[in-house]
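User: For documentation purposes, I need each entry recorded in a consistent format: the amino acid sequence on its own, followed directly by the corresponding structure tokens. There are two entries in this batch. Please keep commentary to a minimum and don't merge the entries.

Assistant: Recorded as requested. Entry 1:
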Amino acid sequence: MNSYNPLLQEFDFAPFSKIKTEHFKPAITHAIEIAKTEIEQIANLSSAPTFKNTVEALEFSGKKLDRITSIFFNLNSAETNEEIQKIAQEISSLLSEFKNDIILNEKLFERVKAVFNKKDSLELNGEQLMLLDKKYKAFSRNGANLNSEDKIKLREIDKKLSSLSLKFGENVLAESNKFELHLTNEADLEGLPEHVKEAAREVASSKEKKGWIFSLEYPSYIPFMKYAKNRELRKTMALAFGAKGFHNDELDNQEHVLQIIKLRFERAKLLGYKSHADFVLEERMAKNPETVTTFLQELLEKAKPAALKEFSELENFAKDLEGIEKLQKWDASYFQEKLKQKSFNLDDEILKPYFQLNNAIEGVFTVAKKLYNLTFTQVTNIDVYHKDVKTYQVTDNEGKEVALFYADFHPRAGKRDGAWMTVYKNQEIINDKNNRPHISIVCNFTKPTKNTPSLLTFNEVTTLFHEFGHALHGMLANTQYPSLSGTSVYWDFVELPSQILENWCYEPKALQLFAKHHETGEIIPQELIDKIKKASNFHEGMATLRQISFGMLDMGYHAGDPSSISNVKAHEDEAFEGTKLYPDVKENCMSTSFSHIFQGGYSSGYYSYKWAEVLDADAFEYFKENGIFNPEVAKKFQETVLSLGGTEDPMTLYKRFRGKEPQPDALLIRAGLLEKQ
């Protein structure tokens, strides 16, 4: 098998060009067998359990499996097809079974527990103690102490959850790909910028159709909703976007949502927790659902008055401008953009010429250079999975290797919506060798057309910086153990490195490094920078309310017993009641495409975006007090937050950087919801 399957050969860089879809399942099946053998060797050792022969050996087992599965699941998100999705279902079941084989291996657990019980007498450093604690909890929190009958139940639940989560995501992607708005009357395009029309014309041409085609992919959907004057067409697009997985057909996700929340609750109860949220939050900074609920409620009290005032202003503006008697969801972006233009004489079409994608990439690289002495050199000899993917060698100021960086920027049929950072190879130190990581960011930015380069909206610029912040967390990792490396931190801490980097997008000293007009080379004028900063809090109350509503919906599904939830739409409406501004749309349901909590890792964790905003607002204040490119502050942030991963409690790391606990008022002041004293 080895000679025919590139995934089973030794490789450093993922051998994308050699991999065929049929290689994945046999490679993963074989790698599972290798990992099982390694696990059995640890469990059956005749010598007494020690940190090195048990805990550390367990940490470094299954490496081949980790590399292969990281390649497979990253492709399933970024370059998938029906065949890969079918294999994903089969593989997920195998991996779920394998994970449970480890967790429920009694001899292995006894060895780990023996080391854990004598940890106070062992001379372990902080990172080793954290690894020991993490390994022990991986068993105790996942069924190792259950009786035989309950262990079987847990296996069945985990297999079902794994399959349901994949199916949920497949349906959302299929719904996005299925819809298109095909227009042949140019009058229907009124209000749309020329480059948006050009991109839609190219899509139609690629499908051998006349006219223009718009889709639910963000670079097509968002500008249409923001600029198209035709209200009925905006409604058509909004209804399609909001009804993904909500059509009572073969792609419907309502039953998947109900099954997922009930299985998660059943699993938590089996393990001795009151709810899925109690289980998840035990290993988060927030610690319990009550803290999260209080946090969201306090934010709501501060944000709602501002949101109601902003909404009333928007209603009056829409009525005066176009005689709209009742604002609907498909009016939101359109009239917000019009009002922003009127209030600040600013819109994305004025800004976009200054944010050519290639310049923005160089900009984020330059910011990383000034903060962390990193150099990014594009290389073309690294295998990639699609021609759009770019690769960069990352080095420090002494020319030493830091990381390999992949960047995949544009939408396509096989890529899911949104933007994310991922890892192809973890950083770790083995036998005194520091193996450097392979990190990737995947986005869905506006594609270049025949006549126009890829020009980013300001929101896309902040998305680039956000995902690059995650990438820095991975690239600058410097820990011994891979499961504590980079972004392997508490979920409500992981957004700090990403969200703090967004702040540089609003700073003149940073913008002037890369925001240059793509035709004239003119650096963005100070006047526009001032407008960006003034507009940064535009409708912040409404934006905060929206994020709070998602966090509350998440907790509504996971913080209690969901057995009484039988209607997904009705439950969602109830959860949104205290945050609702626009009339409900009966044809739409957000839950059925809420991939963050039903496919990604954010169940009982969506609040963490706002939680991390508190951290990032407070942390960036420290940078501003000392200069946004201050080398001492940057070095301190690198050494306490970016490099240490999950080796210490996140609040300990944060206080070591900041010198104190975060102040929530910093977020409210930045958002314009609280006056600075």
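Entry 2:
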Amino acid sequence: MSVRVVLAAVAAAVLCALAAGPADAKRVRVFAVGPKIDPSWLQDRATFRAKLLGLTDARERPAAAAAGVPIQDGADDVASHLLGPADPARAVATARDLVTLPEDLGLLAAFTGVRGVTARSATDITTSIVGLLATYAPQAAYYQSRFPALAGRPFPPTRLLATALTDTFAHVAVETFAELADRSDAYLVAGVNMARDWRIVCVDRATYVPPPGGEPCAQEDPAAVALLRAPEDLTRTYAYEATTPEPVNMALVFDPDGRLISRQVKAYLTPVELPGSLDLAPGPVSGLRAVATPVGRLGVATSKDAWMPDVTAKLDQDRVEVLVQPEFFVGDTVRRDGPWAPDTIRASGYSDVLRHPSIETLVLPELTGNLFDFSADNQQAIMRKPRSRTEPGGALLGQDRMPGLVAVSPWVVPDPARPGEPLVERRARLGQAGEALLPGSGVRCASRTVPAPCENGHVEGVLFADVQVGDPPRLRPVPRRPRARGRVFTADRPLARAATAQRNVALAARGRTAWAVFEEQGGGRDQIALVRSTTEGASWSARVRPTGRPAGAVREWWPAVATGPDGTVWVAWQDDSSGTWRVYVSRSDDGGRRFGPPVAVGADAPAGAAQWRPAIAATGPGRAVVAWIDERGRFATEDRAQAQLWTARLQGGAVLDARRLDDAPAPVPLAASLDHAWAPTVAAAGDRVTVAWLDFRTYDWRTVARESADGGATFGPLRPVSRTAAEVEALDDTPRAAYPAGGGPVVIAHTRWEKELRGATVASRQHDVVAAAGDRLPVQVDGRGRTPASAFAPAIAAVPGGDVLVAFQDHADGPGDVRITRLTPGRTARRPVRVDDTGRAGTNQWRPAVAVTRRRVIVAWEDERDGPSQIYLTRAAPSRVR
């Protein structure tokens, strides 16, 4: 069966699934376009353009062939599958197509034209860079005089070179991308590596004709035009001039008229992008935002960003619907030893769609092929959030079925070779084929247009699928299920049902009283509400607004709640009332009925410094400790904000001893400009306080902690909670801490992912939930062992007798379920218990919270069974959760 037939069948299945969706959602077609690197299309602007036009529109392939630019046999296209705008006269407002192209695609423009001849003929990257430095020397001198700081960058001077290439990148790549968007009447995302900002200079405004995209001439400067434009392009009367000396890796977003509407800058850089190699500038750690378009709220996580928990959590919080992951996944290729690259890819955008409620779709376009000693053989993929345990799903190379994977590109050999092919045999066969693709393999290809296991025989092509975006589903309450025989927990019930979406619930309890805080949308903004129960969760009060803000006036995110022995209730959150995200705390002295005015916990931070994701715990009567992420610091190596971990004591209405906790030890060199912190948690038992968080100082995400014995006035040294070996990449997430009742060391649960170094013979476990008591090794609590299935978002609470309960979000069957495990510190965890009562209905449940009253365990979570996400809860006697 041909690839085209397979994809058509997948598309038909997707359309059937979409037919059951909410009536107020919009059908959108998404495309992943993946060209293969080949010298034929890097000769000049015309061949670069011919390649992309030919790959996206089959009608252009004869012209591409005539120009010596081959398109791979069997490659699909975009043009023949476009839905087109609902109203062609208003394409920008009514577009129904999204076209995505890979990371680094614009970088290849450096090899084009007369000035790229030496670079194209080079046999290694060093010679190529030297050649470009020579041919772009006049442009480099021009920019060095404009931006003297470029002279102080590390050798080789690649940041200066990338700035000097601004006109080439823009004229060859950016204009081609704009033309593709305009021709397709589609929104388009494409990757470039170039100056973050530029302008057009022209010879004469009166005769200036705008290029594709319609950018105006900012200034008349004939001398600059003559210097910056390509020497073979003497009739061009304009040029692009960099206005910043900081080249970045970014995805450009174009509207259906070809206009550039957004620049999404990659925040976390790979080693090849750091000083000593490409020397790109990292983007702001909080710079990525949703791009609102008629084809959905788009979020772009370029390559490494898709693995970063802070990046994807912020995109989810900004209600991104469609996550675009542009890739040039170099270095991690399919081979017979070391990590299995598709296992690593599975842990990125695919896992993001599972774990984050708002992200419905993943589109992953991939640039394949060999460039000097760089090689990329990753598959393109499109995923929709799974809502059935039996729906068909594709698979990445060497993997079993992955629910929700609706389109995946073929590879150079069949996979599996036969039904039931054993994993070790299967991956060895695939690894041998992958090694044949690599530079210098010596395996010659019989044809340039037929993919095969030979040097640079990679696959190129186009994937597409239909997805839904737009308005959330209407509230359609589902009748409560009767409690099933033998069920540990009571029947699920909504906490405080609303017609709009709710999320991010947090719980606290003391005695028979419990408090819940959560977000719900109102007036187009997220608002924080609090409800309380004096019946151990059996009934709940009306909503109280603890923030003191006028309803709907500001956005309020990520609430946290704690209660002290005197009944004081503390609520912490972040909002943008000051024009910048800042963390605030309010206090109630009457059990949560009324709250005092909000108090800024980091009021001394400079203007514009954002603060994020607070956590709070009470330490005594009228006392608490709060921790948060604070961007007041700056890196010494790059003028960028650093996300730091800060904490403060609260005494009545006063904020005391605000300080940074993550200032030592020094980061490894790779993390010198990327050492951020994220996701704090605070636990307290009287004056014993633990603050734990995620830390990137080792150039991966590991859970660390500091402890205090005096109520947060002073803290001991930083200690690791993660025990992943130093040589293994770790991607922890969501630490949560609790002190066991009656004493004992703090227990910290977190999500763990480790790169499996034996991946060619052992499947990666994917994301596990683990818990560590004090200095002991973490214990897996999700009950999945080595099964390659993911669990996320743990919550933790102590129960009488010294045990703790860990609730988590489980995706072993595709859609998310909530489960809970009882753990005796220092021992193996018990078998997890299912919490929600949706059975095999296929709806998703996310991000549980757990609290323990005198006689009940209360678990709350986000639940989509009623349409828009609602906070649901259930209860059980602690003794029954075992």
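Summary note for entry 2:
DSSP finds 13 helices and 44 strands in the chain.
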